[in-house]
TrEMBL record:
Superkingdom in the source lineage: Bacteria
Single GO term (MF): exonuclease activity
UniProt domain Endonuclease GajA/Old nuclease/RecF-like AAA: residue ranges: 1-366
Pfam families in UniProt: AAA_15 (PF13175)
Keywords: Coiled coil, Exonuclease, Hydrolase, Nuclease
Source organism of this protein record: Nitrosomonas communis
Protein name from the UniProt record: DNA repair exonuclease SbcCD ATPase subunit
Length: 904
């Protein structure tokens, strides 16, 4: 069985989504929440859930966005035939239809049963828990999102019998176990259960358990006696050892105390010398700093005197340059002022001309807008006339009946049929004419007189003076009645049609249609002419030009108030000439303004540069003055702090002499400290203190041990420990001999039970090994050659998957694997079982993975594709749903994106 296509309608978020499947490999991609899981759930329910399901299951499929009941169409192939199943999940009115292309069609329960037969599944019934039961249909083939890491043998529980059947059919011979073998195995199993627990320990109350307990008690008694004997012997030894340790510790403590006193004295001397050294270092540092400070002061005074002489010499030429720049700046300022006044005059002149120019330009625009407005107004009046005429014709058209040529033709056909039926009826009718009569004659309910004639098309009674009663039977039989009914039906149909249009006859209908055609032709002609006049924007253009005309008129009036001497032009030509004249004047005025501005800008730039040069010179002079003043202040301050040259020289000589004396005394102190070796004294002090502490600790421990040994000897010395141990040892030997005898018997039972279990396991392995080999073949493409899988069959069911990868030293159970590895191993197990079960489905089965490798990294997903491709080559139809379809690019699968095949 393989899926060909599926269409889902009104199913949750899907309005209508169609997906076609490749025969071997299909990849369905879409972002999260795009409906991938919903789509594959709908296909699963279309295959396995009855259409007439009700309750929460049916409600869960309903769409909150689209009207209509959920519906699923699936096309699939079975045994070389193509089938289409359609299910509409609408509660009790649900519909199921199964169609064999080119063959039978089944509906309702019959279709559900036939579909179950084709898919080889059992009917799951209804009621509570239906959703969970349906999810178990093909659970080994349908890997739901979030469940890919579950143990696949549980999902395939319902298929274990079919898998065993395929494995047994594939084995070389039937595997059997005799009834006698079973009875013997059961006997030893019962014997084993009486002696051992499930954990392999002796069962409570059994002979072996009692012997083991007696042996353990004897061992405990013997151990206690032996420990008591050893404890007393050890207490004696400990007492003697502690006495010797105390004496040795007292002697060592005395010697170490004398050494400590000598070291403490030397350390005190070192502290005094170190304090003296620190004082001498501080004195030497102060004298050295004072020497540096005096030398630096002398150098600073010399530097300040040199800089003052240099700055004073550089100042005179800078003052001369500043005076020259001030004279040039005054002359440039006067020229800039004259150029600025000239520029302002040209600006005012150009402004006056520009105002007149702008007003003249507005007048030209006003004349143009007025002409355009007059043209649109004329066209607007013609359009209005055309529209009024069209409305009059439409009113005349609405007064006529809405009959058309099709209705007239239909009535003509009915009339022709009626005329034919009436002619046929008249031909079959009997004609009676009264020529002369002396008696009263009644034809039916009507009295007949001389000269009357009648056409009878139905049985009619005739009476002569109520004495003679005749019945006329017209010819034609059944056809006469049929023809008469046909005439009545056609007449009724014709009258009904005429009444619906409120007309009396076909002639009136033809006249009305001719009038309607004439009026519609006139309306069409007028509308064509109207389109030529108005393209739909006439009214908008007319309003727009009116608005422009109003605005330009208002602007003219506003600007005319600023130019009271301006004379308004009388014509468009006069306005254009005046505008051209002003435009020429404005160009001249703009040129003059530009030239005067350029002249002004050049002078202004020169003035600005001269001003900057002058300010720079002034700033430089000011800076020099400030620097001279600052350096003079610093020189005066240095002389005030350190005195004149003679005083500073004398003070420097005194400081250098004192520094030399301090240095000699410091070297003497350092020599005395080095002789005492302070670092060695500190280590000696720590060593002696540590030795004292350890000796004291040893002495206290020995005192404690002596007290403990004395107490043990006093409290535990009333009984002979050697005799008690000898008796306990003999009892232990007897208990061990008894336990060995009982244990040997129990181990024999255990060995026989294990032998029978091993033989039964070998029978089980002959079933499970082919399945394990198939799983290993899939995983070797993932983890490398040498990957092995074992799987146990217990009571007809597979369980306990164990994996050994080349990188592992021991086998790992399925539950102990990481999340990603569980997904991969579970997929291999599902593929292997599907490959076995496919033999019952013409070697073909679909297997669906809905985001099944969420815990696998991209590199592992790429390797997985080798396993999936192998399954496709072996006949399985691999269908993958993923929010990252790019991860499966290497599979070479047919890609379908939900956003390209669905309408929402």
């Amino acid at each position: 069985m393989k899926l060909i296509s599926a269409t889902v309608r009104n199913y949750r978020i899907h309005r209508e989504t169609t997906v076609r499947f490749d025969e071997h490999r299909s990849l369905i991609g879409g972002v999260n929440e795009s409906g991938k899981s919903t789509l594959i759930e709908a296909i699963h329910r279309g295959l396995f859930l009855k259409a007439r399901v009700t309750g929460d299951t049916q409600k869960s499929m309903m769409s909150l966005h689209h009207a209509g009941h959920p519906e699923v169409d699936i096309e699939f192939s079975v045994a070389g035939k193509t089938f289409r199943v359609n299910k509409r999940f609408s509660g009790q009115s649900g519909i199921t239809q199964l169609v064999e292309v080119g063959g039978n069609v089944w509906h309702g329960e019959e279709a559900e049963s036939e579909l179950n037969r084709l898919l080889k599944v059992d009917d799951k019934g209804g009621g509570r828990g239906l959703t969970e039961r349906i999810m178990q249909q093909w659970a080994h083939l349908w890997v739901w999102q979030g469940k890919s890491g579950n143990d696949p043998t549980r999902d395939a529980a319902s298929e274990h019998h079919a898998i065993l059947q395929r494995l047994q059919n594939g084995s070389s011979a039937a595997i059997m176990q005799s009834d006698r073998d079973s009875r013997v195995a059961a006997y030893f199993a019962r014997q084993y259960e009486q002696v051992f627990t499930q954990n392999g320990k002796f069962r409570a109350g059994s002979e072996a358990n009692e012997a083991e307990k007696a042996c353990i008690e004897a061992e405990e008694k013997e151990r206690m006696c032996k420990e008591r004997m050893q404890r007393l012997e050890q207490a004696t030894l400990d007492f003697e050892s502690s006495e010797q340790t105390i004496a040795e510790a007292d002697a060592e403590l005395s010697q170490l105390g004398q050494q400590k006193k000598k070291i403490d004295s030397n350390i005190e001397q070192v502290k005094q010398l170190q304090s003296l050294k620190n004082q001498q270092i501080d004195t030497y540092t102060r004298e050295e700093q004072q020497e540096k400070e005096l030398q630096q002061a002398n150098q600073t005074i010399l530097d300040l005197r040199g800089e003052l002489n240099q700055r004073t010499a550089e100042l005179a030429p800078k003052r001369d340059k500043s005076n020259r720049l001030q004279l040039a700046l005054a002359e440039l300022k006067q020229r800039v002022t004259q150029a600025s006044e000239k520029y302002q005059l040209t600006i005012q002149k150009a402004r006056a001309i520009r105002q007149q120019h702008d007003l003249a330009q507005l007048w030209v625009a006003r004349f143009e807008f007025q002409d355009h407005s007059d043209t649109l107004s004329t066209k607007h009046q013609k359009v209005q006339q055309q529209q009024n005429e069209i409305e009059r014709y439409k009113e005349a058209l609405n007064k006529l009946s809405p009959i058309n040529e099709n209705a007239l033709q239909s009535m003509r056909e009915i009339q022709e049929q009626l005329s034919g039926a009436q002619a046929a009826l008249k031909a079959m009718a009997v004609g009676i004419e009264v020529i002369a009569s002396e008696h009263v004659i009644r034809v039916g309910e009507e009295e007949a007189k001389s000269g009357n004639s009648f056409h009878l098309n139905a049985p009619t009674d005739i009476w002569l003076d109520n004495l003679t009663h005749l019945r006329i039977q017209p010819g034609g039989g059944g056809s006469l009645e049929t023809t008469r009914q046909q005439v009545q039906t056609l007449q009724k149909q014709l009258n009904s049609t005429l009444d619906s249009y409120a007309i009396e006859s076909l002639e009136q209908a033809a006249t009305i249609i001719a009038k309607r055609n004439q009026i519609e032709q006139k309306i069409s002609t007028l509308q064509s002419a109207l389109k030529i006049l108005d393209d739909g924007k006439l009214n908008e253009d007319y309003i727009h030009i009116k608005d422009k005309l109003s605005k330009v008129t208002a602007e003219i009036n506003r600007r005319a108030e600023q130019l009271p001497e301006y004379i308004a032009p009388a014509t468009r030509s006069e306005a254009a000439d005046y505008f051209d004249n002003l435009r020429y004047k404005l160009q001249q005025a703009d040129t003059e303004e530009f030239e005067t501005k350029a002249e002004h800008d050049i002078l202004a730039k020169q003035f600005h540069q001269a001003e900057l040069d002058f300010q720079t010179g002034i700033s430089d002079l000011t800076t020099n003055d400030q620097q001279i003043t600052e350096k003079q202040v610093r020189l005066n301050l240095a002389l005030e702090m350190y005195g004149d040259d003679a005083h500073r020289a004398k003070l420097l000589q005194q400081t250098q002499y004192a520094k030399q004396q301090t240095k000699v005394r410091l070297e003497q102190t350092c020599q005395a400290l080095e002789t005492l070796q302070p670092e060695q004294l500190e280590r000696d002090q720590m060593r002696i203190e540590r030795a004292l502490a350890m000796q004291e600790q040893s002495r206290q421990a020995a005192i404690m041990q002596r007290a403990v040994s004395q107490a043990a000897l006093r409290l535990d010395g009333s009984e002979d420990p050697q005799a008690a141990w000898s008796m306990a040892h003999a009892r232990l030997q007897n208990a061990r001999e008894q336990f060995t005898h009982v244990k040997r018997k129990a181990e024999a039972i255990k060995l026989l039970h294990q032998l029978f279990q091993q033989q039964q396991k070998q029978l089980s392995d002959r079933f499970s090994q082919p399945l394990a080999d198939k799983i290993s073949a899939y995983l070797q493409g993932l983890y490398g050659a040498g990957t092995k899988v074992s799987i146990t069959m217990d009571e007809g069911k597979f369980r306990d998957i164990q994996v050994i990868r080349p990188s592992d030293t021991v086998s790992l159970s399925f539950d102990s694997l990481s999340g990603g590895t569980r997904e991969q191993v579970a997929a291999a197990v599902r593929l292997a079982m599907a490959e076995l079960l496919a033999a019952d489905h013409d070697g073909k089965l679909p297997i669906v993975f809905d985001d099944a490798f969420a815990y696998s990294d991209p590199e592992r997903v790429r390797t997985l594709q080798r396993m999936l491709d192998l399954a496709a080559e072996r006949g399985l139809q691999v269908i993958i749903l993923s929010c990252n379809p790019a991860d499966y690019a290497g599979l070479g699968a047919q890609l379908t994106r939900l956003d390209e095949c669905s309408s929402t």
